[in-house]
Amino acid sequence: MAEHEPLNELEHAVLERIHEARATVRAPDELRARIDAMRSAPARRARQRVGYRGALAGALAAAALVLALVLPGGSPGAPSLSQAAALALSGPTAAAPASDPSAPNVKLGRDVQDVYFPNWATRFHWRAVGQRSDRIDGRQAATVYYAWRGTQIAYTIVAAPALKEPAAQVRLLNGTELRTLTLGGRLVVTWRRAGHTCVLSGRGVSPAALQELAAWRVPGESH
């Protein structure tokens, strides 16, 4: 008879993702109880190692299914906020866009269907350091990376129509409705601009800092 083996890295990662999701979404009580039992129960002798691994795999599979249903997403076949936020993890594939000649201190020369990326270097010290281009289920998605004091954040704009809004903390700032949540260990702030979905995310940065950046607009510009 074998003792329980420690959870491997992948299992730990899945359980941590579940733990993060519990902060913003509500899974069924039965599933939550099973997850809590896996996390807190002391090691006990298993009847069979195969049986233990099979039960764990089943629980994780059930948890993954529930997360797919309750985490922010769109209608079937539509791109989700989770997909958009995940683009930040892929990293830049090109140099940062230059400043927009028409308004170099406030805009970058990159946009998605005329929705521009801001130049935060002068006002907020966040300097554009790279960019990437992707498509999510046929929609254009552009990401610009900004850095300041060793911390990097990513700003993704997904082409219209806007993605489904997630269940999250809502704050109205400077006329912009911001939704803040955590996905995959990253702080995420999302909002809409001209029918597009904007996603700003990062680690090691406060919700207030991301929200201030998200709600900023060129002086005199309508929301």
What does this entry look like structurally?
The chain is of the alpha+beta class and 223 residues long. The protein has two domains: 9-70, no CATH class; 81-215, Phosphorylase Kinase, domain 1 (2-Layer Sandwich), CATH 3.30.200. Helices cover 30% and strands 30% of the residues. The chain has a seven-stranded antiparallel β-sheet. The longest helix is centred in the N-terminal third of the chain and has 22 residues, at 49-70. The radius of gyration is 20 Å and the shape is globular.
Describe the structure concisely for a colleague.
This protein is an alpha+beta fold. Helices cover 30% and strands 30% of the residues.
Q: Distance between the terminal alpha carbons, to the nearest Å? A: 66 Å
Runs in which pLDDT lies below 50 for 5 or more consecutive residues are 45-50, 61-77
| DSSP strand tally | 9
Cα shape: globular
Radius of gyration equals 20 Å
The CATH topology assignment of the largest domain is: Phosphorylase Kinase, domain 1
Overall pLDDT metric: 78
Strand order of the largest sheet: 3-4-5-9-8-7-6
Count of alpha and pi helical runs: 6
The CATH class of the largest domain, by name, is Alpha Beta
Structural class: alpha+beta
Largest sheet: 7 strands, antiparallel
- N-to-C SSE string, H for helix and E for strand: HHHHEEHEEEEEEEH
CATH H-level homologous superfamily name of the largest domain: MucB/RseB, C-terminal domain
Percentage of residues in DSSP E strands = 25-35%
Q: Helical amount among residues, as a percent range?
A: 25-40%
Total tally of structural domains: 2
CATH architecture of the largest domain: 2-Layer Sandwich
